[in-house]
Amino acid sequence: MPIHPELLKALVCPVTKLPVSMLDSNRLEKLNRLIDDGSVETLGGHPVTEPLTEALITRNNKTIYRIKQGIPVMLEDQAMAAEQIAG
After folding, report:
1. How far apart are CA 31 and CA 39, in angstroms?
2. Are strands 71-72 and 54-58 parallel, antiparallel or unpaired?
3. What one-character DSSP code corresponds to residue 50?
4. CB neighbours (10 Å) of residue 81?
5. Element (H or E) spanning 36, and its range?
6. Could you tell me the pTM of the whole model?
7. 20-48 pLDDT tens trace
8. Buried (b) or exposed (e) across 13-28, using 16+ Cβ within 10 A?
9. How far, in Å, CA of 73 to CA of 70, rounded?
10. For a Cys staple, 59 with which of 18, 32, 34, 50, CB 3.0–4.6 Å?
């Protein structure tokens, strides 16, 4: 279920207060490959084991937030550092 565009306009990172946008399909695919390899963890230090169908990324491209069943999970300890998919 896609996130409603009006909700997307209102969302900001709870830590930096920067706006977020949808993570593009190429980076989402790369992130999911890394999740399958067991190479991704949350900012809280927990491994990410479930692939993402959608995600948000902060304007500065540093933090990724999962969208689960159409609901953004905007919790700092469940966010992922975008540097894990750099390169």
Report:
1. 9
2. unpaired
3. S
4. 14
5. helix 25-36
6. 0.93
7. 999 999 999 999 999 999 999 999 999 99
8. beeeeeebeebeeebb
9. 9
10. 18
